[in-house]
Backbone:
């Protein structure tokens, strides 16, 4: 049997090759529902004590009129706005949540990151929707093929959210395969959060930090061969799946009906 391609190659090609027209209408409808729901809970979250702390922090960093902090009249640098908006979305803990593959609360980070960079770059609504769907698809596939990180003491929301947000922003920035693989490696290095901090003000900080971790357009991404050294492939290779000790690569290579429809259209 032929050896499947490296996981990061599969993910990068999926993200960079898919066109908006290949995304099923059902996926787009669900995306719009999740995005609107997250904006609603973020606006409600502005009344929480943790929101005041975060907004004060953003003001002290310094205003840059690039991206809006939701529910306020303030604008900030896109990374700062992504942090604030990701935190606000998770402040009440009412944002969308997965109960099956332990991917956490995905939209708080993807929308916090995607909308801040979309505003700063002038992205269209279609581009934002596509970026969101791709980010969700990749982070869910990764989570489904890896152990439950919460069993190992980590908070799954920022672990997978950092990677999903990186994918969403890479799509908005139109990064190529090599740049996207580097972006995933950088985001993986910045991902993290402790599960025992559930119920504290630090928990929404996890989501804000993951949204900010994705901010890669202000970095000068390394060139080959450095790109090869920072990919997430070696990490994925060492992680056991839920059922066995070797990665179940066949599942990662089957990236939903979106990929199949894209192939059929070629």
Residues:
């Amino acid at each position: 049997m032929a050896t499947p391609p490296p996981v990061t190659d599969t993910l990068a090609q999926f993200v960079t090759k898919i066109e908006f027209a290949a995304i099923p209408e059902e996926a787009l409808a669900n995306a719009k529902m999740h995005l609107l729901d997250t904006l609603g809970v973020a606006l409600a979250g502005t009344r929480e004590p943790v929101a005041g702390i975060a907004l004060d922090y953003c003001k002290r960093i310094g205003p840059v009129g690039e991206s809006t902090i939701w529910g306020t009249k303030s604008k900030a640098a896109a990374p700062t706005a992504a942090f604030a908006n990701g935190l606000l979305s998770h402040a009440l803990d009412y944002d969308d949540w997965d109960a099956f593959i332990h991917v956490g609360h995905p939209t708080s980070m993807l929308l916090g990151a995607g909308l801040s960079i979309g505003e700063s770059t002038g992205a269209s609504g279609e581009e934002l929707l596509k970026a969101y769907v791709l980010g969700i698809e990749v982070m869910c596939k990764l989570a489904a093929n890896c152990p439950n990180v919460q069993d190992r003491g980590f908070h799954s929301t920022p672990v997978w959210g950092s990677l999903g947000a990186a994918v969403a922003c890479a799509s908005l920035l139109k990064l190529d395969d090599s740049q996207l693989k580097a972006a995933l490696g950088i985001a993986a290095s910045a991902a993290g959060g402790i599960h025992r901090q559930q119920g504290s003000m630090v928990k929404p900080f996890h989501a804000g930090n993951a949204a900010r971790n994705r901010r890669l357009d202000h970095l000068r991404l390394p060139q080959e061969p450095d790109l090869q050294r920072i990919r997430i492939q070696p990490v994925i290779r060492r992680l056991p799946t839920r059922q066995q000790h070797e990665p179940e690569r066949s599942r990662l290579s089957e990236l939903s009906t979106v990929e199949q429809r894209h192939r059929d259209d070629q």
Q: What stands out?
A: Residues 170 and 180 are 6 Å apart (CA to CA). The longest strand covers residues 67-68.
